[in-house]
């Protein structure tokens, strides 16, 4: 309940929002993380509805990443990673690939908006907000 009150206060402070877009939750290895995200999204959606938000949409991470040119790694890129780092586990390679893509997003912020962002989650949020503002995502 506390999270919902805080989010509603945020929406009210800024006069509400006509629309919000939430990044669609994809498969995760951690049930706790999935449950925590569900609770946070529930607080956001409930508060948005109470604050008069009319449009609530979702976008998958790969959709907005592809739009920006940060596409999934090619088979050749994956093979090159495995050649440079032999003998690692499948989960290690997946984590490495995910981190490479997050670094790409942070570089995009630097190139497109001339801003240095050191946190990949903040970079994701910045890119998402910019794309929403341009009307690219959430439709």
Please provide a brief summary of the model.
The protein is mainly alpha-helical and 139 residues long.
Fraction in helix:
55-70%
Oligomer: single chain
Query: Beta-strand percentage?
Result: 5-15%
Query: In this structure, how is the largest beta sheet organized?
Result: 2 strands, parallel
Coarse structural class: mainly alpha
Beginning-to-end CA distance, first to last residue? 30 Å
Could you please describe the fold and organization of this structure?
- With 139 residues, the protein is mainly α.
- It has helices spanning 2-13, 31-50, 61-68, 75-84, 90-113, 120-133, and strands at 19-23, 55-59.
- A two-stranded parallel sheet has the order 1-2.
- Helix 1 packs across helix 2 and helix 5 packs across helix 6.
- The longest helix has 24 residues, at 90-113.
- The model has no long low-confidence stretch (mean pLDDT 83).
């Amino acid at each position: 309940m506390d999270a919902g009150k805080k989010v509603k206060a945020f929406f009210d402070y800024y006069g509400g929002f006509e629309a919000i877009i939430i990044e669609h939750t994809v498969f995760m290895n951690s049930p706790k993380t999935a449950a925590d995200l569900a609770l946070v999204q529930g607080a956001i959606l409930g508060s948005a509805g109470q604050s008069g938000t009319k449009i609530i949409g979702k976008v998958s991470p790969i959709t907005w990443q592809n739009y920006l040119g940060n596409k999934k790694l090619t088979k050749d890129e994956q093979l090159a990673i495995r050649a440079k780092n032999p003998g690692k586990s499948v989960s290690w390679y997946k984590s490495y690939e995910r981190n490479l893509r997050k670094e790409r997003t942070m570089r995009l912020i630097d190139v497109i908006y001339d801003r240095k962002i050191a946190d990949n989650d903040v970079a994701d949020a910045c890119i998402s907000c910019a794309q929403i503002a341009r009307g690219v995502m959430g439709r």
